[in-house]
Amino acid sequence: LDAAPDSAISWLEKAAEQGFSPALVELGNCYMKGEVITADTLLAADYYRQAALGNSGEALYKYALYMKQTGIERDTLLGSIHDCMSWAAEKGYGDALYFMVMHYDANGNYKAAYENAFALHLQGDTRGTCYVADCYYNGRGVKRDKSLAKDLYREAAAAGNEDAVRILQGW
Q1: Where are the alpha helices (DSSP H) in 34-107?
Q2: Does residue 28 carry a pLDDT above 70?
Q3: What 3-state class would DSSP assign to 4?
Q4: Global confidence as pTM
Q5: Most buried among 9, 21, 120, 152, using CB within 10 Å?
Q6: Which has the closest alpha carbon to 96: 48, 36, 152?
Q7: DSSP 134-167
């Protein structure tokens, strides 16, 4: 978008008119951030919603955030914020997986938190790796295994996760 912003927006709009989800999401991002084009959160949300209806995990996540920020409890087609986040997580969208990890953790459902964190870990996301390590260290959702926890913290630390570095320094 940096090279020729007007042309890029024009091409994104053409692709979006065809229902191409990545273009819908990118237009939503442009309107949400006000980059390259004047900010318009309602239009951004509409683009995210269209892409979400096309099963885009990123769009489901971003539309759920919009719903949360604006107080929309339920969308007639997509359901609740939780529904959107769950579907985005099921599609493997990393930020949605992490949201679900934190949601399940806060509600004491450590098995579900672990499962989402493990999916995130498999994607190479150190937030998931560190949470899985926490689960093994504390025996939450899985059998306690401090040796495996330490290995996972090392893996996360080697990939640059600062929380894991701090934990290992205190080990």
Answers
A1: 41-53, 57-70, 81-90, 94-106
A2: yes
A3: coil
A4: 0.89
A5: 120
A6: 48
A7: HHHHHTSSS---HHHHHHHHHHHHHTT-HHHHHH
Q: How far apart are CA 74 and CA 161, in angstroms?
A: 35
Please, which residues bridge with residue 80 across strands?
Answer: 74
What confidence score (pLDDT) does residue 8 get? 87
Please compute the mean of the pLDDT values over residues 110-119 and round it to a whole number.
98
78 to each of 82, 97, 112, 156, 164, how far by Cα in Å? 10, 18, 22, 35, 36
Residue (of 101, 92, 93) closest to 129 by Cα position: 101
- For residue 54, which amino acid is it? G
The string of pLDDT tens digits covering residues 29-67 is 999 999 889 999 999 999 999 999 999 999 999 999 999
In this structure, the chain runs to a length of 171
Amino acid code (one letter) for 1: L
Residue 151: CB atoms within 10 Å: 13
